[in-house]
Amino acid sequence: MTGLFTGAVYSLVSIGLTIIFGTIRIVNFAHGEMLMLGMYLTFFLWSILGIDPLVALPIVFAVFFTAGYILQSTLIRPIQKHPIHAQMLMTLGLLLVLQNGAVLAWTADFRRVHTPYTDLTIRLGQDLFIDFPRMVAFLASLIMSLGLYIFLTKTYWGVAIRAVGQDSETAEILGVDVKRVYALTFGLGTACAAAAGTLISTYFPIYPYVGTTYIVMAFIVAVMGGLGNFLGAFLAGLVIGVVETLVAFGVSPLLRQTIPLVIFLLVLFFKPEGLFMIRLRK
Q: I want to staple 218 with a disulfide (CB 3.0 to 4.6 A). Which of 13, 191, 228, 270 is the partner?
Protein backbone atom coordinates (compact mmCIF):
# COMPACT_ATOMS: atom_id res chain seq x y z
CA MET A 1 0.00 0.00 0.00
CA THR A 2 2.82 2.41 0.86
CA GLY A 3 4.31 1.84 -2.58
CA LEU A 4 1.07 2.79 -4.30
CA PHE A 5 0.71 5.85 -2.07
CA THR A 6 4.23 7.01 -2.95
CA GLY A 7 3.79 6.10 -6.60
CA ALA A 8 0.66 8.23 -6.98
CA VAL A 9 2.62 11.31 -5.88
CA TYR A 10 5.44 10.41 -8.28
CA SER A 11 2.79 10.14 -11.00
CA LEU A 12 1.42 13.61 -10.28
CA VAL A 13 4.89 15.18 -10.40
CA SER A 14 5.80 13.27 -13.57
CA ILE A 15 2.53 14.12 -15.30
CA GLY A 16 3.38 17.80 -14.88
CA LEU A 17 6.85 17.18 -16.31
CA THR A 18 5.62 15.08 -19.22
CA ILE A 19 2.83 17.40 -20.41
CA ILE A 20 5.36 20.25 -20.50
CA PHE A 21 7.76 18.21 -22.61
CA GLY A 22 5.01 16.71 -24.74
CA THR A 23 3.62 20.12 -25.67
CA ILE A 24 6.49 22.62 -25.45
CA ARG A 25 9.37 20.18 -26.09
CA ILE A 26 11.41 21.56 -23.20
CA VAL A 27 12.94 19.47 -20.43
CA ASN A 28 12.31 21.48 -17.29
CA PHE A 29 15.11 20.71 -14.83
CA ALA A 30 13.62 23.23 -12.39
CA HIS A 31 10.43 21.17 -12.08
CA GLY A 32 11.49 19.75 -8.70
CA GLU A 33 12.05 23.26 -7.36
CA MET A 34 8.37 24.00 -8.01
CA LEU A 35 7.54 21.11 -5.70
CA MET A 36 9.94 22.53 -3.12
CA LEU A 37 8.43 26.02 -3.33
CA GLY A 38 4.95 24.50 -3.10
CA MET A 39 5.99 22.85 0.16
CA TYR A 40 7.31 26.14 1.54
CA LEU A 41 4.16 28.02 0.56
CA THR A 42 2.08 25.33 2.27
CA PHE A 43 4.26 25.58 5.36
CA PHE A 44 3.88 29.36 5.63
CA LEU A 45 0.14 29.24 4.99
CA TRP A 46 -0.08 26.73 7.85
CA SER A 47 2.37 28.35 10.29
CA ILE A 48 1.33 31.99 9.77
CA LEU A 49 -2.33 31.82 8.79
CA GLY A 50 -3.23 28.44 10.28
CA ILE A 51 -4.52 27.08 6.95
CA ASP A 52 -4.62 23.29 6.78
CA PRO A 53 -2.59 21.84 3.86
CA LEU A 54 -5.70 20.27 2.32
CA VAL A 55 -7.45 23.64 2.38
CA ALA A 56 -4.28 25.27 1.04
CA LEU A 57 -4.12 22.85 -1.91
CA PRO A 58 -6.31 24.89 -4.32
CA ILE A 59 -4.52 28.08 -3.23
CA VAL A 60 -1.11 26.58 -3.99
CA PHE A 61 -2.36 25.19 -7.30
CA ALA A 62 -3.71 28.59 -8.38
CA VAL A 63 -0.58 30.50 -7.27
CA PHE A 64 1.80 28.19 -9.10
CA PHE A 65 -0.38 27.92 -12.18
CA THR A 66 -0.15 31.70 -12.44
CA ALA A 67 3.60 31.63 -11.71
CA GLY A 68 4.18 28.96 -14.37
CA TYR A 69 2.07 30.87 -16.90
CA ILE A 70 4.15 34.03 -16.31
CA LEU A 71 7.43 32.10 -16.24
CA GLN A 72 6.78 30.55 -19.63
CA SER A 73 5.76 33.87 -21.13
CA THR A 74 8.83 35.72 -19.85
CA LEU A 75 11.75 33.26 -19.58
CA ILE A 76 10.90 30.11 -21.52
CA ARG A 77 9.25 31.52 -24.65
CA PRO A 78 12.31 33.53 -25.83
CA ILE A 79 14.51 30.39 -25.89
CA GLN A 80 11.99 27.85 -27.21
CA LYS A 81 13.39 27.95 -30.74
CA HIS A 82 17.00 27.98 -29.59
CA PRO A 83 19.16 24.80 -29.61
CA ILE A 84 18.32 22.26 -26.94
CA HIS A 85 21.49 22.98 -24.97
CA ALA A 86 20.37 26.60 -24.53
CA GLN A 87 16.99 25.43 -23.24
CA MET A 88 18.63 23.01 -20.82
CA LEU A 89 21.00 25.69 -19.52
CA MET A 90 18.06 28.04 -18.96
CA THR A 91 16.13 25.55 -16.81
CA LEU A 92 19.31 24.43 -15.02
CA GLY A 93 20.05 28.06 -14.25
CA LEU A 94 16.52 28.51 -12.96
CA LEU A 95 17.00 25.44 -10.75
CA LEU A 96 20.15 26.91 -9.20
CA VAL A 97 18.58 30.33 -8.67
CA LEU A 98 15.49 28.91 -6.97
CA GLN A 99 17.41 26.39 -4.89
CA ASN A 100 20.05 28.80 -3.65
CA GLY A 101 17.46 31.54 -3.22
CA ALA A 102 15.54 29.22 -0.90
CA VAL A 103 18.70 28.57 1.13
CA LEU A 104 19.37 32.31 1.46
CA ALA A 105 15.76 33.09 2.36
CA TRP A 106 14.96 30.21 4.72
CA THR A 107 18.31 28.49 5.45
CA ALA A 108 18.81 24.76 4.99
CA ASP A 109 17.00 23.85 8.23
CA PHE A 110 14.28 21.23 8.04
CA ARG A 111 10.73 22.40 8.58
CA ARG A 112 7.60 20.32 9.14
CA VAL A 113 3.87 20.83 8.92
CA HIS A 114 2.22 19.19 11.91
CA THR A 115 -1.54 18.81 11.65
CA PRO A 116 -3.95 16.87 13.90
CA TYR A 117 -3.78 13.98 11.43
CA THR A 118 -0.01 14.00 10.80
CA ASP A 119 0.62 11.05 13.14
CA LEU A 120 -2.74 9.37 12.55
CA THR A 121 -2.75 5.76 11.39
CA ILE A 122 -5.67 3.60 10.32
CA ARG A 123 -5.77 -0.06 11.30
CA LEU A 124 -7.19 -2.32 8.58
CA GLY A 125 -6.19 -5.63 10.05
CA GLN A 126 -4.20 -7.28 12.77
CA ASP A 127 -0.87 -6.31 11.24
CA LEU A 128 -1.87 -3.75 8.64
CA PHE A 129 -1.61 -0.05 9.43
CA ILE A 130 -1.94 2.84 6.97
CA ASP A 131 -0.56 6.33 7.45
CA PHE A 132 -3.49 8.67 7.07
CA PRO A 133 -1.46 11.56 5.51
CA ARG A 134 -0.03 9.23 2.85
CA MET A 135 -3.48 7.85 2.10
CA VAL A 136 -4.84 11.39 1.70
CA ALA A 137 -1.93 12.27 -0.61
CA PHE A 138 -2.67 9.13 -2.64
CA LEU A 139 -6.38 9.88 -3.02
CA ALA A 140 -5.78 13.56 -3.80
CA SER A 141 -3.14 12.64 -6.41
CA LEU A 142 -5.55 10.22 -8.07
CA ILE A 143 -8.34 12.81 -8.11
CA MET A 144 -6.07 15.50 -9.54
CA SER A 145 -4.65 13.14 -12.16
CA LEU A 146 -8.16 12.10 -13.18
CA GLY A 147 -9.27 15.73 -13.29
CA LEU A 148 -6.33 16.65 -15.51
CA TYR A 149 -7.07 13.68 -17.79
CA ILE A 150 -10.68 14.80 -18.17
CA PHE A 151 -9.50 18.36 -18.83
CA LEU A 152 -7.13 17.17 -21.57
CA THR A 153 -9.71 14.96 -23.27
CA LYS A 154 -13.02 16.78 -22.79
CA THR A 155 -12.35 20.53 -22.91
CA TYR A 156 -11.42 22.92 -25.71
CA TRP A 157 -8.11 23.96 -24.14
CA GLY A 158 -7.27 20.37 -23.29
CA VAL A 159 -7.77 19.30 -26.91
CA ALA A 160 -5.79 22.38 -27.99
CA ILE A 161 -2.88 21.31 -25.78
CA ARG A 162 -2.89 17.86 -27.36
CA ALA A 163 -3.16 19.31 -30.84
CA VAL A 164 -0.23 21.65 -30.30
CA GLY A 165 1.78 18.77 -28.87
CA GLN A 166 1.16 16.74 -32.04
CA ASP A 167 1.67 19.52 -34.61
CA SER A 168 1.93 23.13 -33.48
CA GLU A 169 2.06 24.60 -37.00
CA THR A 170 -1.13 22.86 -38.13
CA ALA A 171 -2.87 23.77 -34.86
CA GLU A 172 -1.96 27.43 -35.38
CA ILE A 173 -3.30 27.34 -38.95
CA LEU A 174 -6.58 25.95 -37.56
CA GLY A 175 -6.90 28.93 -35.22
CA VAL A 176 -5.35 27.69 -31.98
CA ASP A 177 -3.53 30.36 -29.96
CA VAL A 178 -0.28 28.42 -29.69
CA LYS A 179 1.51 30.92 -27.45
CA ARG A 180 -1.35 30.84 -24.98
CA VAL A 181 -1.41 27.04 -25.07
CA TYR A 182 2.31 26.93 -24.26
CA ALA A 183 1.83 29.23 -21.27
CA LEU A 184 -1.24 27.29 -20.12
CA THR A 185 0.62 23.98 -20.35
CA PHE A 186 3.62 25.24 -18.41
CA GLY A 187 1.27 26.65 -15.79
CA LEU A 188 -0.51 23.30 -15.42
CA GLY A 189 2.73 21.36 -15.20
CA THR A 190 4.14 23.75 -12.60
CA ALA A 191 0.91 23.61 -10.57
CA CYS A 192 0.98 19.79 -10.56
CA ALA A 193 4.47 19.78 -9.05
CA ALA A 194 3.56 22.40 -6.43
CA ALA A 195 0.36 20.54 -5.53
CA ALA A 196 2.37 17.36 -5.01
CA GLY A 197 4.59 19.38 -2.66
CA THR A 198 1.53 20.40 -0.67
CA LEU A 199 0.36 16.81 -0.39
CA ILE A 200 3.67 15.43 0.89
CA SER A 201 4.33 18.36 3.25
CA THR A 202 2.26 16.68 5.98
CA TYR A 203 4.69 13.76 6.26
CA PHE A 204 7.92 14.75 4.48
CA PRO A 205 10.47 17.32 5.74
CA ILE A 206 10.64 20.66 3.95
CA TYR A 207 14.09 21.94 2.95
CA PRO A 208 15.64 23.68 -0.10
CA TYR A 209 17.03 20.51 -1.71
CA VAL A 210 13.93 18.34 -1.44
CA GLY A 211 13.10 18.96 -5.10
CA THR A 212 16.27 17.18 -6.22
CA THR A 213 15.06 13.86 -4.83
CA TYR A 214 11.70 14.11 -6.51
CA ILE A 215 12.93 15.42 -9.86
CA VAL A 216 15.21 12.39 -10.21
CA MET A 217 12.27 10.07 -9.64
CA ALA A 218 10.08 12.21 -11.92
CA PHE A 219 12.55 11.81 -14.79
CA ILE A 220 12.76 8.07 -14.20
CA VAL A 221 8.98 7.80 -14.26
CA ALA A 222 8.58 10.12 -17.27
CA VAL A 223 11.14 8.22 -19.36
CA MET A 224 9.75 4.85 -18.29
CA GLY A 225 6.24 5.92 -19.23
CA GLY A 226 7.33 7.70 -22.41
CA LEU A 227 8.03 11.44 -22.48
CA GLY A 228 4.84 13.23 -23.45
CA ASN A 229 2.68 10.23 -22.54
CA PHE A 230 0.15 11.15 -19.83
CA LEU A 231 -1.19 7.70 -19.01
CA GLY A 232 2.26 6.18 -19.35
CA ALA A 233 3.61 8.57 -16.70
CA PHE A 234 0.72 7.72 -14.38
CA LEU A 235 1.24 3.96 -14.65
CA ALA A 236 5.02 4.21 -14.43
CA GLY A 237 4.74 6.30 -11.28
CA LEU A 238 2.72 3.60 -9.56
CA VAL A 239 5.16 0.90 -10.68
CA ILE A 240 8.24 2.82 -9.50
CA GLY A 241 6.58 3.59 -6.17
CA VAL A 242 5.85 -0.10 -5.57
CA VAL A 243 9.33 -1.20 -6.70
CA GLU A 244 11.02 1.39 -4.47
CA THR A 245 9.03 0.29 -1.43
CA LEU A 246 9.54 -3.44 -2.03
CA VAL A 247 13.30 -2.91 -2.39
CA ALA A 248 13.46 -0.75 0.75
CA PHE A 249 11.59 -3.30 2.90
CA GLY A 250 12.67 -6.53 1.22
CA VAL A 251 16.31 -5.86 0.35
CA SER A 252 17.84 -2.70 1.82
CA PRO A 253 16.76 0.92 2.31
CA LEU A 254 20.10 1.92 0.77
CA LEU A 255 18.97 0.46 -2.57
CA ARG A 256 15.52 2.07 -2.67
CA GLN A 257 16.60 4.58 -5.35
CA THR A 258 19.35 2.46 -6.91
CA ILE A 259 17.00 -0.14 -8.38
CA PRO A 260 14.72 2.48 -10.04
CA LEU A 261 17.87 4.03 -11.55
CA VAL A 262 18.89 0.63 -12.91
CA ILE A 263 15.40 0.24 -14.41
CA PHE A 264 15.77 3.75 -15.88
CA LEU A 265 19.06 2.80 -17.59
CA LEU A 266 17.63 -0.47 -18.91
CA VAL A 267 14.61 1.32 -20.37
CA LEU A 268 16.87 3.90 -22.03
CA PHE A 269 18.99 1.11 -23.51
CA PHE A 270 16.32 -1.34 -24.67
CA LYS A 271 13.19 0.79 -25.16
CA PRO A 272 13.97 4.53 -25.07
CA GLU A 273 10.45 5.43 -26.26
CA GLY A 274 9.05 4.15 -22.94
CA LEU A 275 7.35 1.02 -21.68
CA PHE A 276 3.78 2.31 -21.54
CA MET A 277 2.96 3.72 -24.94
CA ILE A 278 -0.67 4.56 -24.17
CA ARG A 279 -1.99 7.63 -25.98
CA LEU A 280 -4.77 9.95 -24.99
CA ARG A 281 -7.84 9.32 -27.12
CA LYS A 282 -10.55 11.68 -28.19
A: 13
Contact call for residues 9 and 138 (beta carbons, < 8 A): yes
CA 200 – CA 134 distance, rounded (Å): 7
Q: What's the CA dihedral at 188, 32, 86, 184 to 10 degrees?
A: 10
Return the sign of the alpha-carbon dihedral for residues 197, 202, 208, 213: negative
Burial of residue 17 (CB within 10 Å: 0-12, 13-18, 19+) is buried
Q: Evaluate if pTM is beyond 0.85.
A: yes
Query: Whole-angstrom Cα distance, residue 105 to residue 125?
Result: 45
pLDDT in tens, 24-73: 888 889 999 999 999 999 999 999 999 999 999 999 999 999 999 999 99
> Is 108 buried (19+), middle (13-18) or exposed (0-12) by CB count in 10 A?
exposed
* Helix or strand run (H / E) with residue 149: helix 132-154
